[in-house]
Specification:
This protein is α/β, with parallel strands linked by helices and about 180 residues long. It contains six helices and eight strands; from the N terminus they run βββαβαβαβαβαβα.
Amino acid sequence: MATASGTGDRFRKRKGRKPVSPLRRVRLLATDVDGVLTDGGMCYSDSGDEWKRFHVRDGMGIKLLQRAGILTALITQEQTQLVARRAAKLTIPEVHQGAHDKLAVLRDIIERHGLDLSQVAYIGDDVNDLEVLRAVGFSAAPADAVPVVRKAVHYVCRKNGGEGAVREVTDLILAAQPRPSVKRK
């Protein structure tokens, strides 16, 4: 596991130049939902209603990425109205529920948007995310992700899922983006 500022051996250094951070290349943030945007818990009422808790700061981080021109996506095996409603509220353009092959879904997204896997950041927390986490340019996991996932990613958040982990990653991505050059007279 590397820190967010580390480049690891997966990222080649360009001769005579400082290596480009994988975070600087990010043009798409895709994330799992349960255990990442939520704490992974599921609550049911006697009438069968389901509740999930989302952190408002994670939502703001997603909105900040969108304002910076970075595409956002949700890829989850679950299929619920709650996820659809949260995605609509955040105007997330790529929402894929019932996804059992998350990497195939991600490949479809990047193909349609003219991107490649090195331009993708993905946040996942469990074994069903491993294939995607190992394929993308930058991978992250909440602090409470399962151990095998924490070992596989580039960055382990300080925050748990549903408690600001997504915002932590969005802040890292935004901080790494190139600043517009200012012309001086």
